[in-house]
Design a protein that fits this description.
- Helix 7 crosses helix 8.
- Helices cover 25% and strands 15% of the residues.
- The chain contains 8 helices and 10 strands.
- Strand 9 and strand 10 form a beta hairpin.
Length: 253
């Protein structure tokens, strides 16, 4: 019998009734880390580390109108010194409709309009992220919601059959299925690659600001206390499958 591949812990939301959070202990206690520009292979159908596009190749889908309006407003004041495609953004706008009530950032030259390319004088990277660093603010204040959350993901599910009105939130990694059917065609995805599990701290500490925004301070403190104790306990949390080396048996001839 094989052991579990994921470990979860469940907490009720202390602020909102009928909201329940399911936390992926396996991922949150792993040492996964975004390695943009440091070995990231990108999300195209072939490995393309030389493009330094990370997961920005398809533009960022906005979570709602408020999310889109925030970025549109900021783009009007963004310094061209830190934004390679400022002229295109000012002339045509930074958002395009990608289906009914579904908007994403415009693409320029095969990737998000906010992505500075390797030939830019500041090098490759998100202009919005550079702006946040300049202003001394957390990047969540200036980037689309999906961009500051990845590689975390909040999957909201409502069990209609139960009829109890409870909303279940799964806080886990942004895996291939988060991209829809196209995700299966990626040549590489970081939460499956041991090369990206190189952080000095577990995910729940490395991404503490993001988690606090996603679940609230009180719930984060409860979660962090639990995970601190869980790491110190025996047996240790279930190890993330991407960090476990595959051992091949002897080949049968």
């Amino acid at each position: 019998m094989t052991g579990p591949t994921r470990e979860w812990v469940v907490f009720d939301d202390p602020k909102r009734k009928r909201h329940v959070y399911h936390f992926d202990v396996t991922y949150l206690t792993s040492n996964h880390l975004c390695i943009f520009g440091r070995g990231c292979q990108g999300v195209l159908n072939d490995p393309t580390p030389e493009l330094s596009q990370g997961c920005c190749s398809y533009g960022a889908h906005f979570s709602d109108k408020k999310d889109r309006r925030k970025i549109e407003k900021l783009a009007k004041t963004l310094d061209p010194e830190i934004w390679q495609f400022a002229k295109q953004g000012q002339r045509k706008g930074i958002a395009v409709e990608d289906g009914k009530d579904d908007w994403r950032t415009r693409k320029v030259q095969g990737a998000c309009i906010f992505l500075n390319r390797p030939d830019f004088h500041l090098g490759a990277g998100c202009a919005l992220h550079v702006h946040a660093m300049r202003e001394g603010v957390h990047h969540s204040t200036v980037k689309p919601e999906v961009c500051w959350q990845v590689p975390l993901r909040n999957i909201e599910e409502y069990d209609e059959d139960a009829g109890d009105g409870v909303v279940h939130h799964r806080i886990t990694e942004f895996a291939r299925h988060g991209w829809g059917e196209g995700g299966e065609e990626f040549a590489w995805w970081c939460t499956e690659a041991p090369e990206a599990f190189v952080g000095d701290r577990p995910v729940y500490r490395e991404m503490e600001p993001e988690l606090r925004l996603m679940v609230g301070d009180e719930l984060f403190e409860r979660l962090a206390d639990y995970l601190d104790a869980r790491i110190a306990a025996s047996p240790a949390p279930v190890v993330h499958p991407a960090t476990v080396p595959v051992e091949l048996g002897r080949t049968r001839r």
